[in-house]
């Protein structure tokens, strides 16, 4: 299939989630072979269904991406099948908030750090050396506006997303001169079914669509962004 990513292989962690499925669909439409990690079979089936004929270029791995051994198996299997990995997008993450720090146990902080920092650390650790050996590759992590705007009721979430940005910046410095790049996008809010359900009174028209954010991610992974390493791109839209 023709497209910006024809002949390329992309691993989309959380590639069946609210944002992830739009990212997976966009890479498939641009001709990539796409592997997603997922946990719910019905989400993978829905992605495959929506991909139409491009579903032939889609594979899925059931995995907890905070588990180093499980991620090593995914990446090893992917490389055994396709002999290359050009892109990693991490769309795995989680949110906890809405209450002050003193009403939030340290277990919530640990969960946020696990989902929003450890997952990406494990994923980057599994793919980076192969990309460096190949002399090319692009990694994008989905951070959050909360990494910079530290509002009330989000101490654990903000701390985890700020740490995620710092981690990607440091990784980008590690990668300097290797041909591999690491960047982040920072959404404010995204027009996902989950957000519509939890904020039914909001003006959805102002919320960036997952497909719009996916396009920014695709750009960062494309050759057109070869000068960009260590950036965090705000994708707030008008929200
Ligand atoms: N939605 C927003 O408004 C918004 C705003 C700013 C930033 N973000 C960030 O954008 C990213 C994607 O968010 P989203 O709205 O698409 O969330 P989502 O729909 O919950 O998608 C996240 C995906 O990650 C998966 N996941 C979570 N922990 C995992 C683990 N340990 N191993 C494997 N998969 C795991 C989830 O699977 P399960 O469903 O099985 O848990 C889900 O499929 C997150 O990093 C989020 O913080 C979102």
The hetero compounds bound to this protein are: NADP nicotinamide-adenine-dinucleotide phosphate
Characterize the overall form. globular
The level of helicity is 40-55%
Low-confidence stretches: none
Topology (SSEs and partners):
Layout: E1 9-13, H1 20-29, E2 33-38, H2 41-51, E3 58-62, H3 68-82, E4 87-90, H4 106-134, E5 137-142, H5 155-175, E6 180-187, H6 193-198, H7 210-221, E7 232-235
Parallel strand pairs: 1-2, 1-4, 2-3, 4-5, 5-6, 6-7
Helix pairs in contact: 1-7, 3-4, 4-5
The structure holds NADP nicotinamide-adenine-dinucleotide phosphate.
Could you characterize the architecture of this molecule?
By secondary structure, the chain is of the alpha/beta class. It has one domain: NAD(P)-binding Rossmann-like Domain (Rossmann fold, 3-Layer(aba) Sandwich), CATH 3.40.50.720. 44% of the residues lie in helices and 16% in strands. The chain contains seven helices and seven strands, in the order βαβαβαβαβαβααβ. The protein has helices spanning 20-29, 41-51, 68-82, 106-134, 155-175, 193-198, 210-221; strands at residues 9-13, 33-38, 58-62, 87-90, 137-142, 180-187, 232-235. The protein has a seven-stranded parallel sheet, sandwiched between helices. Helix 5 links the parallel strand 5 (137-142) and strand 6. NADP nicotinamide-adenine-dinucleotide phosphate is lined by residues 14, 16-20, 37, 39-40, 64-66, 91-95, 115, 119, 142, 144, 187, 189-190, 192, 194-195.
